[in-house]
Structures
1.
Amino acid sequence: MLTDYIRETIKSHAQPFPEEEVCGVVVDGDAIRIPNIHPDKANHFELDNSWVNLQPDAIYHSHWKDEQPGELSLEDLEQCKFCGIPYILHHVGFDEWDYYEPKSPNPFPLKKQGDPQTLDFYLNWRFVWGRSDCFALIRSYFLGILGIDIGDFRRPPLDGFPTIGWLTPWKAEEHGFVQVTPGLPLRKHDIIQIALKGGREPNHLGVIVDAEGMQMLHNVSAEYTSQVGLYGSYWQTRTTHIFRHGSLI
């Protein structure tokens, strides 16, 4: 998707406008610039309607400010997931690139390579809210390992999050899961919902990857990377629900 030709074409679109977000689409191996009609072009982009009938393979835009990341923002990621079309980002100042496919198990396709059908692929992910957070990790695991889409939800801004009383707006039963009766043996691929920060409602997620060894894959916070660890008493006492996908029963 992000060939040298596409990169150079996007650069040629963005560089003449160093103080606004330039945007467009990738169609059949070519990048087509589309007017940015957002009223605040310096900080946001919005495509006009001319792109709708083009059936794009990807949507691109640029960042240019020093304080803007060389990666897609949370707003970018949420828009990408909403439209279901891959996003490309070019930061003009840093000459950096980012790419995200909302239907892929790989959240960092330009940086992370490997086989998503293996457990090792899901280890040592840095925590990026809305992209490789605890839920995104488990969603990617189910997509890559099992070919099962467990859905997603819109993330609130991370500033000041999580607020007291916030509930993960993901309903397992709506995505083919059934609740496991407490006390029954765990199985591989069981999803564990956990309440952290002293709460009673789930705000963290893990998945059992070795039932006999009680090993759980999860991504706790920005201070850590994704890892497999013991699903021991600390996590068990904070568990609120255990879910098993109907296809695995």
2.
Amino acid sequence: MRPSSKIRAAGWLYLVLAMLFVLGPILVTIAFSFNVDRFSSLPWRGFTLEWYQKMLSNEDILYSLRNSVLLGVCVSLTAVLLGFTGSYGLRHWKSRWKGAYLLASVSPLAVPWTLMGLALLIFFNRINLPMSILTVWISHVVFTAPLALTIIDARMKTIPKSMENAAWDLGASSLQTMVLVILPQTLPAIIAAALLTFTISFDEFIIAWFVCGFDQTLPVYIYSVIRSGVSPTINAIGTVVFCISITLVSVAQVLQRKKY
């Protein structure tokens, strides 16, 4: 075997081992979600869909799943709206403080989620706002809107300003230019940001645990259940959540790489 072939083979071996290390626990969870035995142990005792049926018939699971989906949609729409309008405003704001404003806008991404969750809990208590799905929505928007701004702004910076100038010369208003020129050009980035922010909100546990009150999201519900032991139903929930998340993230990555 030539040196180049050995290097290529070593690279593939490293890639496979790294993927097994990262995905190994997830693959085990998926496998045991189809196991007849209610205990997550070997040997394998047969294939079943019983745990998925129990998952779909459990009212607590469905309630928390509905909360997570509704929350993810609301957070995604709000974050994308703030991200797009913020990016469009930065595009036309001529100030030496523009860089500082952008840095301040994305600073919540650098704050540890535990610290942010605690700070938001104290803030909501100070203003006497009861913990509910509303407080989770506000909290998730705080750190997803900067992410949406980053994704959309990266695409908007590639749009030549001459396109806007041409639209204005033809008599289009600022609103018409934004809707008919800028929005179509940034639409793939907007969809990618929406999918990513939905996924993050749907999966997020730490901040939701601080501020959800009795309106549990799916990750918070899973945590409350696994404290007494992991059941195959939890494996089934984990499998469904993983499949949803990996699908949305994959679509978002494809859209972000799309050529214009």
3.
Amino acid sequence: MKIAVVGLGAVGGLMAAKLARAGHAVSALARGATLASVREHGVRLTMAGAQTASAITASDDAKALGPQDLVIVALKGQSLAAAAQTMQPLLGPNTLVMPAMNGVPWWFLQTASASAGLGDRSLPSIDPDGRVKALLPLERVLGCVVHLTCSSPAPGVIRHGFGDRLIVGEPGGGASPRADAVCAALAQAGFKSESSADIRHDIWFKLWGNMTMNPVSALTGAATDHILDDPLVHAFILRTMEEAAQIGARIGCPITQSGEERMALTRQLGGFKTSMLQDAEAGRAIELNALVAAVHEIGMRLSVPMPNIGALLGLTRLMARERGLYPPAA
């Protein structure tokens, strides 16, 4: 399969390296230090104590890479609109686009049931002017949920943490040969890939589990174990998760697990710094919109009471604005 990765950070780099090692024709759209590193050394991956380097074709010009079978988009949400335009030369008549990103994707409400009562299906918090929807239409898209951890300590250098599960599915639900084909390619590369008949539910379930830890850690500077050990913060997170579960139930994504059960799983992972805390400490823009603002936007549209989600969004947004990590108020 001819595969291009847009965004050679931790997740994108991991996927590029493993797919290339499995024999797929992998290329990447990159720039700056990452482009220079990958051209000279390949994508360097440390996994299970072993170090490998996978040679791929990398360029800062999508025209040089040409049309692909699959484009994997592994960017922060705030970079998506610009990248959607830049990647157009990668898209042939049958090219699939699969975002491997956190939070609510731009297409999420387009396939929600009419019975949800959403009215407008746009998501201005994710796609303010509808540019992404226009450039990456729904018929090209496969949904994806990433259940693994990895980091990129230097440009083009990837360290795998734990997990290797990837869920793939059609935005509108159901099975499809193209989703199965992508799953097969990912499995060939060593991922535990599975095809989902309800990828929207899988997306919401992951979001329900991580939409609180990320911003709370960025606000407090605390690792996950310290967050869970604080009884007041623990209770706040549970209330926030309950509000998100109520929104999910309204849009066809019911949550059957309890908040306590989900936090017990987080505790089993040990104490760690979330990706949002790492971004904040490094002075990088935080990915707040896809994780929290979109949930708040959907809840507002459905008139779901959500004082805790609102507080979480407002506090994190203000902190980030004061530190230059989030766009200023219009």
4.
Amino acid sequence: MPATAKTTAPPAAAVAKDAHWAATQERLRNRTRPTATLTICDDLDARQSLDVARYALRRIEGEAADRPGDQAVKDAVTKAKTDVETAQAAFDKASIILTFRALPRLEFEALKKAHPATEEQAEDGHDLNVESLGPELIAAASVDGMPVEAAREFLDTWSEAEAAALFNAAWNVQETSRMDLGKG
């Protein structure tokens, strides 16, 4: 009696597991890299108006919590929310928003390796030459297409705090994690 080749279907659990992994893998591959924004607003009046409006809203919301049935307080909350929206719109209009996206890990590592610390920087305990890395990293991470030359100009001409904020926006997004390690 000749043996006939019999094909068996894989177990349903294995098929379901593979389908689950395929779907999970697809979602993992389609993830976007983290982004961060740096908001620059030179209009101090717009900034102060927004701060004052937010403060007034917090204050009146606190009062509303203490007097839930008071219609005048409810109306004041509504007005305060409108004031915040108006102030936010003015602030947004006066602001420049720069957006940075995390680089692929290997690209970021290569960029860091291309900018080793100088001998003097290494003696001070630094691993990287932030002066040469800064403009390159900012330009590479910029979603807005900021050229290296512009990044260098801004780092050289802005105040220390503002230049640091620009560099940190591009650097910190590289270290952003959107994952949680479960317990068990």
